[in-house]
C-alpha cells in the first residue's frame, strides 16, 4: 500500500511515517505539510491512502480532501487530527474522507484504518463520531453541520466564520444590525460557545467559512 502522510508538524509527521513504514505491506511514498502541497504530492505519487491532518496553514485538510477526492477518486483519505467533535467528523465525511482518527490513536488503530480505507470501507476511530452515527440513524440530513441551528443561524455563522462583521452581515442579508447581533447571540448559546472566536473555530472545523480557513 502506497501512503502519503500530511501534517504541518514535522515531528508528528516523522513518527507517523515510521509507523506506516514498519508495516510489511505499506510504504510512505511522500510527505506534505499543508493542503496545497498534499494535493500536488498526491498527483505526483498517486498514493492508495492519504493520512490527512485537518488544521494546517494555508489550504486546510478539508479543502485538500475535497480536491483529492475529485482529482484522484481511487485514493482514500483518512483524517488524523486533534479535532474530535461530531461536526468535524461530519465535515470530513462530507468532504469524502473514508476514515477519521484522533491523534494519539494506537498503531493498531492506524493499521486497521489503513486496511479498511484501502478496501473502500469507511472507518471511525474508537470513541469518534458516536453522535454522527446516531444522527445517521435518525435523520436523513445527518451530515449537515450544526443541526441545532436554524437555516438562518447557519447562514449567519458561515459569514461570521468568513470574518464578516455584524454590520457587513446585516448589509449582505438585508437585515438590521440588531437582528444580526441577536442571531449571533442565539448561535453562541446553541453551540454552545463562550466567545465569537470559539464559534468561528468550531465553524471552520466543520467546513464553514470558506476553504482558506
UniProtKB/TrEMBL annotation:
Tell me which Pfam families the record gives.
GerE, Response_reg
Alphabetic keyword roster = DNA-binding, Phosphoprotein, Transcription, Transcription regulation
Occurrences of domain HTH luxR-type (ranges): 142-207
- Which superkingdom? Bacteria
For the modification 4-aspartylphosphate, the affected residues are 53
Query: What GO terms are given for molecular function?
Result: DNA binding
Record GO biological process? phosphorelay signal transduction system; regulation of DNA-templated transcription
Response regulatory domain ranges (all copies) = 2-118
Q: What is this protein called?
A: Response regulator
| High-level lineage | Bacteria, Bacillati, Actinomycetota, Actinomycetes, Propionibacteriales
